[in-house]
Amino acid sequence: MADWDIKKLRILRTLQELGTVTATAEALHMTPSAVSQQLTGLAKSLGVTLLEAQGRRVRLTDAAQLVLRHAEAVFAQLERADAELLGYLQGEAGQVRLGAFSTAIPALVVPAVQELRRTHPGLSVAVREAEAEAAYELLAEGSVDLALSLAAHAPTPRDPKFSRVALLADPLDVALPAGHPLASEPGLRLADLAGEPWIFGSSGPWSQITTAACENAGFVPEQAHAAADWSAIWAMVAAGMGVALVPRMAMAGGIGAFGRGEPGGRDGRARVALRVLSGDQPRRHVVAAVRRGSEGAPGLARVLAALRQAAIAQAPREGFHTGG
What we know:
Layout: H1 6-18, H2 21-28, H3 32-46, E1 51-54, E2 57-60, H4 62-90, E3 94-100, H5 104-119, E4 123-129, H6 132-141, E5 146-150, E6 162-177, E7 197-200, H7 205-216, E8 222-226, H8 230-238, E9 244-247, H9 248-252, E10 272-275, E11 283-291, H10 298-313, E12 320-322
Parallel strand pairs: 3-4, 3-5, 7-8
Antiparallel strand pairs: 1-2, 5-11, 6-9, 6-10, 6-11, 10-12
Helix pairs in contact: 1-2, 1-3, 1-4, 2-3, 5-10
């Protein structure tokens, strides 16, 4: 019978993901020669060729792909074993490490943690802020146990390494200067703002979300200013420098997400009109993900349940909002 060495199989899977021996070595804190030696040993113990030279890179053979298909089932079973053992050993206690993008923390993570402190005080949650795409890297390498990200920037549901749970379809509202002619326009649509100067990030997820939403509404937004920080975007809108899409979740933690939270005061909230769009209301989809097989860990299941409840509390609210 072949010798299925788990450590070596993890190295092979990392090589498949990263593409080069050098990148694999860096990710696993090994030397390239050690990676090569481990994979040579795995190929010998399995009796198949796993790698082929392809220029200055290596290519995984069909046999390697076959090995990895079965290895994924092994990894998932080991995650289930860890989850069951954790439930036996820790019960209500333990720690869940959670990676989440910035606007998800006040809207979803904080309410979930507060509820868990009340209902399961022995369970702790360690939060790590991470951009939507980076959260999956942390999850894959084992640095976090659960990741919150945007569906548009997550691996596909067919990825064998992760299980995904849809949490929330977060509406995007539009922030306009309070004196803008369209600030009180009934039935405001995103397409009505095609000729406006826009404020959004120069790159990254929020830039892509804004441009995609506008293009779906039939126009390409003119970027007047580039900013990714919400307080900066809010201040520029308040100053009449342009308009911006704002995720509903960004408001959930209070207006402090944009400024100092002084009612009608110096942070510019009274000078911004936040409008719910009609007809072509864009949304971004928030998902939670865990390593496949770990869903049964009691602590992890409780955190997921608390996040679902926090997401239900964020159900879209319709209407007209001002910054004050």
